[in-house]
Amino acid sequence: MNHLVLPQRPRRLRRTDAWRRLVRETSVTPDDLIAPLFVKESLSAPEPIPSMPGIFRLSPSGIIDECRQLRDLGVPAVALFPCLPAEAKDPNGSAALNPDNLVCRTIRAVKEAVPDLAVIVDVALDPYTTHGHDGVLGLDGTVDNDRTVEILARMALLLARVGADAVAPSDMMDGRVGAIRHRLEEAGSSDTVILAYAAKFASAYYGPFREAVGSAQAAGTSFLDKRTYQLDPANARQAEREIDLDADEGADIVMVKPAGPYLDIIRRVRERTDLPVAAYQVSGEYAQICAAAERGWLDLQRTRDESLLAIKRAGADMILTYFAKAFARDFASP
Ligand code: PBG
Predict the structure, then answer these.
(1) Could you tell me if residue 1 is inside a domain?
(2) Is 281 in the pocket of ligand 1 (CB under 6 A)?
């Protein structure tokens, strides 16, 4: 006899598609996804972002069209990022507080045209500052925490008032979630969700995004170094502390970012809080997969789907991903 007599054969449940489907523990659907979108003024056509194949800066009217398509594909939410010309920026990011700025106009237009789509907007000054940092700088050249928090609280209330469903502080200042929550409550904007970038690491994977919004260009030739406020990639316990603080200060959803290289953090956060957990598959993660696929080294669709599945399996309830539209399209007609 040349066969083994085994008490357990795990392969039994992998033999057919029917068994594989029955025992599958995790799945990704468009319901889980949030599409980040870049909006820019005075564009005659969608503007490609070279390091993010398939992703474009869109005009405000292009955004409406894109939002309709995403809604029709079953994607529940978008995250809007404005891309401003250099002359609209200053060291204090003042344009962020202008109620008629690009992002405010876009929020109003999207909520009017596609009211059932949830609109999430970043609260941070990097699209607005000449230096590309997320806040205003103090005399020592680092971001001044407390002055920045006051500006961000005003910015969040403004975004809530023009119709954002969620504000997403992505700046990593201390105390900003509490300040934003307080300001929103005081002003009667009690339905506005706070999606806190709670565990956001000082990552090299943000490169393509910084090109897309222009914060990299703002920093000139030097690498935009945010290590005095974003988390050290070496630190998991500090990430847990940030989660606890943001939860205590009033966050509705906590986010981990980046996602793929930080699956251990997603899992720890999942086990630590009962709040919904979001994960941001960032621009560099997207670029990596696309670049390898362009060379024929990886299968784009399979790698994309596996990368999202892994993030979900680690414990994320929702994923911000530049793959949202393509995934939803393939999900609708595989
Ligand atoms: C900044 C912000 C960043 C991203 C979202 N909001 C970059 C940064 O911290 O410089 C990165 C997203 C991505 O890489 O896709 N407030």
Answers:
(1) no
(2) no
